[in-house]
Amino acid sequence: MTGLIAPRVFCVGTHHKTGTLWMRATFRRIATTLGVEKRVVFPSTRKPLPEAERIFLFSWSSTFADDLLARPDARILHVIRDPRDVLLSGMRYHLHAPAEGEQFLHVARDDLGGLTYQQHLNALPDDVARLRFEMAEKHAQTLAEMTAWDYARPNGIETRYEELIADTDCRLFREHLRDLGLPEPEVETGVQIFWNNALFGGLARSEDRIERVAKHVASGRAAQWRTRLPRALAEDYAERYGADLVTLGYEDHPTRWLQEVKDAA
Q: Which residues sit opposite 57 in a β-bridge?
């Protein structure tokens, strides 16, 4: 990131079911501990930034305004996840997710015969049907967000959930904090907070997880799709979204990965 001015606007962007709860807990605590202002931002609501002080800005759908992303004093940490695991995690979570933070699940829809998203999902006969519905609904929106992102920004720091969940010695996260522009003592503080909120660290025991984390998280493992994605659904997924897997760097061919699927149906 040579040639960029000193950062003071720290943007953290994720997508639905890509480690959002983890990153939210981590960076909110980092901001609070460092005494730095923090806020969630939306493109439609524009509150002026402080003129000189540092600030953390969060978007849990990575929909930052373009002029914010282009600021020379901004750094953007962006997290994605294998879309196939996003699909599996999303469907499981949407069966029981509360209205807080997930209002779209609890709005009656005419196209669903007056049922809500969650009610319709639970009324479907099996997981294949549920995954197929999820794939055409919230998942399609999340995948569109991930593929629309500009991964070549000079002030962007790109990482993946799969890298973070394997970062048990916190080396990668430490480098991300340095790239954001935090000084070394603050980096060490941030690393400890990251570990405290990790499923391999401070939350390794299920009894140590708050209720919201417990509801969000089944296992946190990477590449669950290999054993949990039903064959019929995997084939549909490859046809519809295989090219997106290649675009995002998760596969080098739209359909070849199907040979790795161990039918979960």
A: 11, 39
Structure-block tokens of residue 143: 């995948």
Token code pair at residue 17: 């079911």
pLDDT, one tens digit per residue, over 40-60 is 998 777 788 998 899 999 999
Q: If you ran DSSP here, which 8-state letter would residue 45 be given?
A: B
pLDDT of residue 214: 47
Reference 23, options 247, 225, 216; nearest CA is: 216
Q: What are phi and psi of 159, to 5 degrees?
A: -145, 170
Joined tokens for residue 250? 């998760």
What count of other Cβ atoms lies within 10 Å of the Cβ of residue 155?
21
Positive or negative CA dihedral for 40, 193, 29, 33? negative
pTM to 2 decimal places:
0.91
Q: Which run of H or E residues covers position 9?
A: strand 9-13
Provide the residue ranges of all domains of the chain, joining segments of one domain with +: 9-81+151-207
CATH number for the 9-81+151-207 domain, one of 3.40.50.300, 3.90.230.10, 3.50.50.60, 3.90.1720.10? 3.40.50.300
Calculate the average pLDDT of the chain: 92
**Digit-coded pLDDT (tens) for 166-186:** 999 999 999 999 999 999 999
